[in-house]
Amino acid sequence: MRKPLYLSLFFLFLAAFYACQKKMPTTQHPISTDYETAKSFLWHQNDSAFYYFNKFTTSSKDSLRMAMAFNQMAAIQSDAGDYYGAQEILVQSLRYLHEQDTSDRKCLASNYNELGMVNYSLKNYDAAIAYYDEAIKLSVVPNYTAIFQNNKANAYQKKGDYQHALLIYQRAFERTDQNKVEYARTLTNVAMTRWLQDHHYNASIPLQQALHLRLAAKDRWGLNSSYSHLADYYLQTQPDSAQYYAQQMYVVASLLKSPDDRLTALKKLILSSPPRDMRGYFARYQLLIDSLQKARNAAKNQFALIRYQVEQKKVENLQLQKDNNAKNYQLFKQQLLLFASLLLLIGGLIGGSYWYRRRKERLILENQKVVRENELRTSKKVHDVVANGLYRIMSEIENQHEVDKENLLDKIDLLYERSRDISYDPPRMETIDFHPKIAKLILSFATSNTKVLLVGNQEDFWQHTTAKAREELEHILQELMVNMKKHSRASNVVIKFEAQNDSLQITYSDDGVGFAEGTKPRNGLRNTGNRINGLGGQLIFDSILGSGAKIQLTFPKA
Predict the structure, then answer these.
(1) 510 has which bridge partners?
(2) Is the pLDDT of residue 327 over 80?
């Protein structure tokens, strides 16, 4: 369950705070008021805590406290369901820490554990396990190491590797310092893993034993876990028992104010209840999930707005300093010119004035050039990322009989995230083979009236290209398909990929209306030409009105 992991990490954060205090003597680095204010809001007014932690990171020079501030911000975002935002901030936190510095290790372990939990929530179990290994390697406190080990075993269990999970859980039984709460957790995990591995295994006895231990200890998070596992265990064999335990889980989750666990409990109630009760549970589930989604979307926007406002204030302060320096410089220069005027003759004054005017004009021209280049680059990105991306989504929706709302929202959310990154160029890490990605992109423009055929789009073709070339070619191909969709009225489109001696060639052809002779290419095709030129290649454009279009892209191998 997600929440018990957070509860464990809460204590880890407290320990990491103490590590922050020991990093530097307070006589050298007094604790920031913003940092202390943020701590006072933590866990009961998280939006205020996030604001003051973020404000602290924009002005502090204490690297360890900055790392811990980012860590806390990530935990707040993750708790609100903003997992990708949490990952981004955790990476920032890691930049301020060093494994060689023993004072940083608690903070590092906390960061890696939180990265593991974020990836666990995103179902990236292999990545989660790798991060838990890093946390275990850096952990210096046995109790925290046990938490990290348990989290790692949970990831193995979720990915279906029950043997590895059981090995880790069994090691927990060997610890003699376990309290009743820890023992109940281990007992539950071992029983459920064995049952998942073999459904003939009788897990009811250890699960009930763990439940009684948690009832005696008044461990609500533990009870939440026990009721959930018992509901799963009895679902197929004793639905009435499964319904009872799901109801108990819903009650405990409500007391814990955990909407995720309430949703889980409602799912179990829907599966285990008789038809007459199922509709009511489903209506409650739908209402809760809609409310939770709205709250999390609002939280994501709020966190982004807080970071933007703090960063904007920092930029304004820097601009004010720059303006003051410029004014001081201007005043100094005026005084210097005045003094020089007393020493130089009229000719010297004229020469100095001429030089000053020419220099100012040159700076203005250079600034205008930079502004134009930035505007062109931004316009190009808006066209490639937002306009073409949105058109592609529209094209896919147009060709679907039924719209998958969740899939559509995912695509729009991805387009939104990419549009936020237009102001800078983040590194793009490809996690899948490129040729299926290109195939999916191009074939998404196929319709019942327009057939699209790919020839030669194989893995070995793309092995001869660099990451930059693949990114540029992805935009080029998307632009060609968007242009086809908007203007060509083609019935057949063929895109052919060929590897030659020292070069690669992509040929686009269609049987559409073509272009009239002398037609000037628009922004999209001009961008295509600029992109292929940037790769050291060339574009050959062949089209006659009424006879289709043929575009040939040739560029050198990597």
Answers:
(1) 493, 549
(2) no
Rounded CA separation 446/211 (Å): 56
Beta strands in 54-206 (DSSP E): none
Contact (CB, 8 A) for 269 and 247 = yes
Beta bridge partners of 499: 504
What's the token pair of residue 437? 């990605």
Answer whether 104's CB lies under 8 Å from 67's CB.
yes
Express each pLDDT in 111-161 by its tens digit.
899 999 889 988 899 999 999 999 999 888 888 888 888 899 999 989 999
pLDDT tens digits, 388-412: 666 667 766 766 666 666 666 666 7
Long-range contacts of residues 47-54, Cβ cutoff 8 Å, at least 24 apart: 47/299, 47/302, 47/306, 49/76, 50/76, 50/77, 50/303, 50/306, 51/306, 51/310, 54/306, 54/307, 54/310
**503-510, strands of its sheet edge to edge:** 451-455, 492-499, 503-510, 549-556, 538-543
Structure tokens given for 465: 């290209």
Binned at pLDDT 50, 70 and 90, residue 504 comes out as very high
Identify the sign of the CA torsion 400, 406, 407, 408.
Answer: positive
pTM, 2 dp: 0.48
CA angle 494, 499, 505 (to 5 degrees): 50
CA distance 345 to 298: 69
